Amino acid sequence: MKVVAIANQKGGVGKTTTAINLSAALALRGQRVLLLDLDPQANCTSGLGIEAPEGCSMYPVLIGETTVAHQILPSGRANLSFVPSEMDLAGVEIELARSDDHLTRLRGILQALKPNDLFDYCVLDTPPSLGVLMTSALAAADEILIPLQCEWFGLEGLAKIVHIIDQIRASNANVDIRLEGIVMTMYDGRTLLSRQVVEEVTQFFPAQIYRTIIPRTIRIGESPSHGKTIFEHDPSGIGSHAYRALAEEFLARHAPERGLAPA
Fold first, then answer.
1. Structural domain includes residue 115
2. What domain count does the chain have?
3. CATH number, residue 164
């Protein structure tokens, strides 16, 4: 099981949208995916149209009251399982901050799932902050995928999260963490700004930036309000096409480690 954190400390960049739709696209491709909502705002949970029972978040897992396996729920989609979030998860920031293993506790919890071989990928939707939940997610992940909106402020946010990744590695909390990729989101090809931002990121991160670019569309923006993935809300639209292409590119990048020939 590969643990992939979808992370950006800046809000409004398409992070949760990417976590939902990349996970759904991978599931449609036959990959067994576990999606964890680690944001106390629970946007990922509501975006999937899930009304979770009280106490089903990662909060009791992180404070040692239960196991992550006990919290996993069906998402209603084939190959896609889910651990929801709730406001109580915000309290774990205080609980974990008091412990000596606050950076590595989530890593240990997810490592325990790997021998069961129940999932191919565990996708972490992280909060838009630099708090304990975010840093714990980075310490737990095998790799980081950064959604980056096509705006100049996005470039500043990118520099900050790359710095945080370096700090996590230097702290020995997760020396093997790697920046797997950068996904450009909210792209508007009619504007010079969008094109310039993509060019800037390509110049500095040529190996990490995905060729697939997620466009700015109304359908992508409104699908969470209906509790649906983009494939359910607008199956033939450009947003669905983009996220399918992203999943294909993601799987092609991981083909060698899965024992497959690269696409």
1. yes
2. 1
3. 3.40.50.300
Its pTM surpasses 0.85: yes
| DSSP secondary structure, 152-210, as one string | HHHHHHHHHHHHHHHHHHHTTS-TT-EEEEEEEESB-TTSHHHHHHHHHHHHH-TTTB-
What pLDDT is recorded for position 151? 85
In the predicted model, residues of the chain with pLDDT beneath 50 are 263
pLDDT digits (tens, 9 = 90+) for 95-139: 777 777 878 899 999 998 988 889 999 999 999 888 889 999 999
Name the residue among 189, 185, 113 with its Cα closest to residue 154: 185
Q: Which residues pair with 202 in a beta bridge?
A: none
Q: Cα separation of 128 and 228, whole Å?
A: 22
User: Which whole-number Å values give the CA distances from 135 to 9, 139, 158, in the listed order?
Assistant: 10, 6, 15
Domain annotation covers residue 110: yes
